[in-house]
Model the fold of this input.
Amino acid sequence: MLDISGQIAERIDAGRTLPAGWYVGRDVLEEERRLIFERSWQYVGRTDQLQAPGDYLTATIGNIPVVVARHPDGGLRGFVNVCRHRCAEVVLGPGHRKVLQCHYHAWSYDLDGALVSAPRSDREADFDPAAFGLLPVAVDSWPPFVFVHVGSDPVPLPDYLGELPGRMRSDGVDVDNLEFRQHGEWEVAANWKVVVENFDECYHCPVAHPSFSRVMEVDPVGYRLEEGDWWSRAVTGIRRSARGADAELPYPLSGRLVRGQFGFVWPNFTVVQNPGPDNLMAFWFVPDGPERTRVVMDYWFGRDVPDETAQQLVDFNVVVGREDQVLVESVQRGLRSGRVSEGRLLLDSEHLIQHFHRLVHRCLAG
Ligand code: FES
Ligand SMILES: [Fe+2]
Done:
């Protein structure tokens, strides 16, 4: 059990970071899986992967495999993806099935989770299929994002997301005009919280992101930070010098969007819109171990955005991402040293990190 005593709440209030030891231990990650990931709404995939009845996708939340499927009634259904026979995962990967058939001994479940066939079960005198349905989990979407909550009594997703979808819409996100174009993944050698913290501030942008800082305002006056219960957002504008005809830009800024916005949904999901042509990017930071994070990336673009422009925006994002990777892996080595027990935030620029730390502390404290 993690020691969450030692006035950590007071230290967070005073702008201290979480204890360095919370970023390196496997025991801490196991607590986080149980108390954070298994008790929050988690991004699992895209609505376009679940269009036809029988389309399904799988994910793992904390330690819990889940499957989400499109039901013939048009709704989404979510289940713990663990077979009631001997606990294999029922289905692997994404796919399309009328029934979810386990790959081990072919027990089959319909899209309501009911066990509809179990080979040779008729030879058992007291076998009651009704007792062995898949266990349901909550599923909902903020199109094009699909979320699952494996805990009991989840806050409804619209309440959890609060004002974030509306604010992102009013600053340019038009999901009806977006189409999915690309998926990518990469691994970084840093604890997932270091990756979130890096996303939650742009204090480092003028120092570490030259191309980003050529496009967007990164000074504290132009870069606005907002927070709600379970979300936060940074909003900024196009840099004045980027508007000039001879500005050297990493991608063409011509387009409808005049703001960059960086939304965060507790605990590990982010939504990014860059200024310029219609675009939307989702980054999901999944812990792969105490000191490893898998960054899952999905990219959407306006239907009229040419592939070449879309690729320039993806490349722009990759450059920024590689710059961030150097930073977070460096922080991880510093945390692992054990010589500096905590950091000290500059709250004017980094209060979204404090917001994140309060949520981490609150959840780990139960
Ligand atoms: S474990 Fe699924 S059918 Fe045996
Ligand atoms: Fe960054």
